[in-house]
Amino acid sequence: MQITNENISHGGRQLVATHDSDACNCEMKFSVFLPPQAETKPCPVLYYLSGLTCSHANVTEKGEFRAAAAEHGIIIVCPDTSPRGENVADEDVYFFGTGAGFYVDSTQEPYATNYNMYSYVTQELPALIAKEFNADMSSQSITGHSMGGHGAMICALKNPDMYKSVSAFAPICAPSGTDWGSNAFTKYLGSDKKTWRAYDTVALIEDGNKVPEILVDQGASDEFLETGIRISLLETACEDKGIDLTLRMHEGYDHSYYFISSFMADHIAWHAKRLG
């Protein structure tokens, strides 16, 4: 691992790092904020997964999370949204390929060689964080936005013992039934829609995967609310399967980082109570 950038913020250290990824077979980049408490003791970890077209940089620069993270003593880890590079298969559209890994492990070539973001987020990156930083790996939680909200929820549902809590901002709740998700899943996972269920939040809940609770913030003026987010499907699935969903709708808010940054401190405080 190499640290490529470092800044002091709210008494902590904001880093950007690169490393050679075995899961994605390329160089990967992520950001990590180390609160001042990490100088003297292991701190819990909160992963933030970003959405379509984003990288680690969007939330790092616009998310406004450092004051709350420093207050609560939480390490914030922000991975990229996909593998990148000249030798990584791609398409020239915003909703697939670079910037759009959908947090799945691809089974279809040419994408299976690199697009293994699920294993990267749940296995390889946590192992690196444990090795390189003063992190309490017994206390991990996860959150994300849009495609990253989808990623956060599937990671938690598939690994309920790994994460203490899960939340999301405007998550893609049922990607299998959206244009974004069906395009990506067909190319990453193949045409058999049964295999898609392993990476679809609503389908996972319907099939018995469970976490105790989920916090979701959603802008009522989000342009993707009906076509991409489909929050009502998550409400129904959680109600049917006994998952405590706290859904907060916010009038006037859209899908942007103006929305995310407005409620980021709330999410960090919510996770802090559950991280212990």
Write the layout of secondary structure elements.
Blueprint: E1 2-9, E2 12-21, E3 26-34, E4 43-49, H1 56-62, H2 66-72, E5 75-79, H3 117-132, E6 135-144, H4 147-158, E7 167-169, H5 179-189, H6 201-206, E8 213-219, H7 225-229, H8 231-241, E9 244-250, H9 257-275
Parallel strand pairs: 4-5, 4-6, 7-8, 8-9
Antiparallel strand pairs: 1-2, 2-3, 3-5
Q: What is the helix tally?
A: 9
Specify the CATH class.
Alpha Beta
Helical amount: 25-40%
N-to-C series of helices and strands: EEEEHHEHEHEHHEHHEH
The pLDDT mean sits at 98
Fold-level CATH name: Rossmann fold
Nearest-angstrom radius of gyration? 17 Å
Instruction: Please give the domain count.
Output: 1
Q: How would you name the CATH homologous superfamily?
A: Alpha/Beta hydrolase fold, catalytic domain
Q: How is the largest sheet built, in terms of strand order?
A: 1-2-3-5-4-6
Largest sheet: 6 strands, mixed
Estimated share of beta-strand residues: 15-25%
Low-pLDDT stretches: none
CATH architecture: 3-Layer(aba) Sandwich
Q: What is the number of beta strands? A: 9
Distance from N terminus to C terminus (CA atoms, Å) equals: 29 Å
Shape: globular
Which structural category do the helix and sheet elements fall into?
alpha/beta
